[in-house]
Amino acid sequence: MVALFLLVASTHFAALLSPGPDFFLLIRTALGEGRRQADGCAAGIALANLSSMLLVLLLLGVLPAQGGLFWRVLQALGGAYFIWIGWQALLAGRDLQLPAGEQRQDGRWWRGLRQGLLASSCNPKLPLFYAGLFSVLRDAAMPGWGLALAMLWMTLVVWGWDLALVRLLGRQRWRAWLQRQVRWLDRVCGALLLAMGLWLVLGSAL
């Protein structure tokens, strides 16, 4: 059970490391509106992730036990999505261009909170992502307290990583490192997501 939790947690964190829409939203907010508003944006993104996880757990709670048709369809959809984003990450040969400039110090925290919450909540891929992760845990008969712990952990990881990202954006050395290593990060993220996706798809077919 612990090993499975670590696998899901590492896959989740790898997805955070690969720059995506939330990453660039934080960059624009930090450099355009200031660290305070970017911190609010990070909180909004974390709340949107928490809301998506609650929605997924509610859906899993009303679905029949594993082995039912809807359960298998959900697993297959989540696995297919993981395979797709994993394959895209493996094929990505992008160069990350970060805008130059120093972080401003003004901006409003509440405006950033609303900005991050709306942007992430409107991403239809977020519930599908968590459906894949939590279906793995439920398939292994993870108890309710374990699912709650996983939800809390992933919410705090999203929030903590985004707060750290906002602060690291002000360091030129870190920006240069990220620009050099973005392809490697894509490969790691892609491999983990592809493996998780194949696991889900194969599990839904058994």
Please describe what this structure looks like.
With 206 residues, this protein is mainly alpha-helical. Helices cover 81% and strands 0% of the residues. It is built from eight helices and no strands. The longest helix is centred in the last third of the chain and has 34 residues, at 172-205. The two termini are 21 Å apart. The model has no long low-confidence stretch (mean pLDDT 79).
Question: In a nutshell, what does this entry contain?
Answer:
The protein is an all-alpha fold and 206 residues long. It has one domain.
Keywords:
81% helix, 0% strand, mainly alpha, 206 residues, 8 helices
Mean pLDDT: 79
Order of helices and strands: HHHHHHHH
For the sheet with most strands, the description reads: none
Structural class determined from secondary elements:
mainly alpha
Helical coverage, percent range? over 70%
Strand % is under 5%
CA-atom Rg in angstroms = 18 Å
**Count of discrete domains:** 1
Judging from the principal axes of the Cα atoms, what is the shape? globular
Query: What's the total helix number?
Result: 8
Number of strands: 0
| Uncertain residue segments | none
Q: What is the terminal-to-terminal distance?
A: 21 Å
